[in-house]
Amino acid sequence: RLFREQSAEDPAGRPRERNGEPDETEGEPHLNAEENLEAAERLMPDDESASAEAWPNAAASRAYYAAYFAVADAAQQRGYPFTSEKNYYRHDTLPKDVVRWGILEEDLGDVLTWLRDLRSKADYWEDHVDREEATLALLRARELLRATTEKEEQL
How many other CB atoms are found less than 10 A from the CB of residue 101? Predict the structure, then answer.
């Protein structure tokens, strides 16, 4: 698998925890996808008050990677080879590849492209991602995770 299986212990030998509870997600599909989505949600709290600090650039980036990992995991589960000689799915071609492979419908491939482009804006452009764009990125990433999970359940 493309994505590492995490041991039940961290590198120091302590039991892994998630939100103060033992982490029982070891070996589950979408582990990295869900972790990135959770990080994005923490970076963009629902509360728009002045006391709620938001990080829309970081949230948009994590939302893209949540979607990327979910889609790449689905491709790997179906046996599709990596599209890079460095053992990963190329970001520039993955949206069209997964549509061609039947993993996503074309409209969801467009969503993945939009998320990828928003991540580029967040990470590299002078013009930053605003709260509205980051919130939409979270919604769209959740949509892609749901779609890939439903497809896996149908297999």
Answer: 15
The two tokens of residue 102 are 């039947």
- Rounded distance between C-alpha atoms, residue 16 and residue 25, angstroms: 10
State the sign of the Cα–Cα–Cα–Cα dihedral 123, 44, 114, 153. positive
Q: Which residues contact 111 (CB under 8 A, 6 or more apart)?
A: 67, 140, 143, 144
Question: For residue 36, which amino acid is it?
Answer: N
Three-class SS of residue 19? Answer: coil
Question: Which stretches does DSSP call E strand in the chain?
Answer: 17-18, 21-22
Segments of the chain scoring below 50 in pLDDT:
1-14, 16-20, 22-29, 51
Strands (E) located in 17-140: 17-18, 21-22
Task: Quote the pTM value.
Answer: 0.75
Report pLDDT for 58.
92
